[in-house]
């Protein structure tokens, strides 16, 4: 006889395979690493202007403990940052913090920073005759922002990500901002290290909030993750980047012909499946070699390369530097 129970169980298993994870972007973001490289506690009497240079591969975080302060981007856009405000510039880039919108600036590297702890320094430029409550207080961090294989997401993020857009949906961030203000202003024992950790958490919360809100107006690559069938392919590549994937196998993951799959993948992501997989592998390799200090030979094997020479050629073509150079720079 026809077993309806078996049919139902089979259908459920099939549907479970067909349906992508409920939040694929969040699932893939589990590997996100956002850690401060160095921080500055900045206290300045207006008028002042501080310039921040473009550091390749580094994000920039700013928290205003006492404002207002004006943020001017390289494109000339100006945002007002009041007390308790925090912003993350995920791609870094040249920008300025000013006490008034049209003031000139001085590069931050030209200021003497007094060490407070291993990764935090203090910059003070105050006028002695001025009441200290008139000084601006800022806590800034230059950060390593590593999404591993999720690197396309960084390019889709806004130039400036503002914590204020999240407070209505994530009120738990407010106590962290208040704690940052207290630590910055009161300078209690150990405050520098506490501020650094809070800055990391607030920055990661800003990124997570943007993702949970649907990645803003981002399209293209994000559309691939939102496409139920194509999203399965992206997830499979990220789960097993070292596998010797063929176009036929990826098309089968999507449940389509090779030609339809290849056309759809290129249309949405802007690159071929082979190029996407290569760039994914090399971004992961750069992380493993540079930060985690894995042997180059082990990385090559883990990512499916039969020889270290072939891996090194692909790495240099994508990253622009040899694996050895990346390792040396990270030391």
Briefly, what is this?
44% of the residues lie in helices and 20% in strands.
List the helices and strands and how they pair.
Blueprint: H1 4-18, H2 24-28, E1 33-44, E2 49-52, E3 58-66, E4 69-73, E5 78-81, E6 86-89, E7 95-98, E8 106-107, E9 114-117, E10 120-125, E11 136-146, H3 152-156, E12 161-162, H4 173-186, H5 191-212, H6 221-226, H7 228-239, H8 247-254, H9 258-269, H10 273-290, H11 296-302, H12 308-319, H13 323-330
Parallel strand pairs: 1-10, 2-8
Antiparallel strand pairs: 1-11, 2-7, 3-6, 3-11, 4-5, 4-7, 6-12, 9-10
Structure notes:
This protein has a 7-stranded mixed sheet with strand order 9-10-1-11-3-6-12, covered by helices on one side. Strands 5-4-7-2-8 form a 5-stranded mixed sheet, with no helix packed on it. Helix content is 44%, strand content 20%. It has 331 residues and is an alpha+beta fold.
Widest β-sheet, arrangement of strands = 9-10-1-11-3-6-12
- Summing up helix and strand content along with how strands pair, one would put the structural category as alpha+beta
Mean pLDDT: 82
- DSSP strand tally: 12
Oligomer: single chain
Helix content: 40-55%
Number of helices: 13
Terminal CA distance: 69 Å
Radius of gyration: 24 Å
Give the low-pLDDT segments: 1-22
Task: Profile the largest sheet.
Answer: 7 strands, mixed
Kindly estimate the percentage of residues that lie in beta strands according to DSSP: 15-25%
